[in-house]
Specification:
Layout: E1 2-3, E2 10-11, H1 23-59, H2 70-93, H3 99-133, H4 140-152, H5 158-169
Antiparallel strand pairs: 1-2
Helix pairs in contact: 1-2, 1-3, 2-3, 4-5
């Protein structure tokens, strides 16, 4: 008599797969794995390369722009690398790990990516503040466009974009 490891169903004619899951649980398991895989692919193809470009651009400001030092830039780079590592580990776990472990690793990758994005935004704001104090400030429209690009790239949330837009427009 077989027993499903996920839902606990059992019976003489119940078939389980190589992971000990009944057909219903196996289908749910596969859907979750595909969802996590798709999200990881999107991060690898779109979000991570965009953040990498931003980090490289901002790190080139180290020593040139007041407020951006090597320690701060190193911290941003470290956070980004941990996000990449978490995403790489997630990809290697997709076929064999339990759903609970996959979801935890996926959340870790998301959290690190959010932390990297916030750090990059802070670095960018330091660069912008230094540029403005040097007298080479951008117009509000330019700033709004910059934050719109960050929103489109997934580097900031809609709420962060809207708040910054209101601030720049003086609303």
């Amino acid at each position: 008599m077989a027993r499903c490891k996920q839902c606990g169903a059992s019976g003489l004619f119940l078939r389980v797969n190589e992971h000990g899951l009944c057909p219903d649980c196996a289908q749910k398991d596969m859907e979750i794995r595909l969802s996590i895989s798709d999200k990881g692919l999107y991060r690898n193809e779109h979000v991570l390369p965009e953040l990498q470009r931003k980090i490289e651009k901002l790190i080139s400001s180290v020593g040139k722009v007041p407020g951006i030092d090597a320690n701060f830039a190193g911290t941003v780079t470290d956070i980004f690398q941990r996000a990449v590592d978490a995403d790489t580990k997630l990809a290697s776990m997709l076929k064999t790990a339990s759903i609970t472990d996959l979801q935890a690793q996926n959340q870790l990758a998301d959290d690190l990516l959010s932390e990297a994005t916030r750090a990059i935004t802070a670095l960018s704001e330091k660069e912008d503040a230094a540029t403005l104090s040097a007298g080479a400030g951008n117009s509000s429209a330019d700033e709004i466009m910059k934050y719109k690009q960050l929103l489109d790239a997934g580097a900031i949330t809609r709420e962060e974009y809207d708040a910054k837009k209101k601030q720049l427009l003086g609303l």
